[in-house]
Design goal:
Layout lengths: L1 E9 L3 H8 L12 E8 L2 E8 L2 E13 L3 E6 L5 E11 L2 E10 L3 H9 L2 H20 L15
Length: about 150
């Protein structure tokens, strides 16, 4: 199992940053390797990714979500993938976003990539692109403020 934890400070208010993160369909605009995300309902998404020439599709479930605090998920279809994004108010216009992602590399390409820390660099660059995305826009493209308690 590979675990990556990275943070970025975003020059935008906490609610704006959180609201944008809940717009999963926008992820391909700032996440490398993410081709498409479809929201199925308030707790389920379908992902299509391409990494190292490997195309993968998997489903995830939101396991915990609290507005302006955190979004946690896990895969539901055999792919081992889980994580949590937390949001921390540093000031009126600054928010720290921390990503912790755990996943199980499959196949030689993913295992070599993990051994060479490509996943660390990918998460860092995705967070940097998210920062640029929201700071350039100046506002969120939408937001979902629902609460998903643990075990719901």
């Amino acid at each position: 199992m590979v675990s990556v934890t990275k943070s970025v400070d975003v020059e935008a208010p906490l609610s704006t940053v959180y609201n944008q993160w809940t717009q999963f369909e926008d992820f391909p605009q700032f996440m490398g390797g993410v081709d498409k995300i479809t929201s199925i309902d308030d707790k389920h998404t379908h992902w299509v990714t391409s990494t190292g020439g490997q195309r993968r599709e998997f489903d995830t479930e939101i396991t915990e979500q609290h507005p302006d605090e955190r979004v946690a998920w896990k895969s539901t279809d055999g792919t081992t993938h889980a994580g949590v994004i937390t949001f921390h108010r540093l000031g009126d216009t600054t928010t720290r976003v921390t990503a912790q992602i755990d996943w199980q590399p499959e196949g030689l390409v993913e295992k070599v990539g993990a051994a060479l820390n490509f996943d660390d660099r990918q998460v860092s660059s995705d967070l940097d692109r998210f920062k640029e995305f929201i700071e350039t826009r100046g506002t969120e493209s939408g937001g979902w403020r629902g609460d998903v308690p643990v075990g719901a």
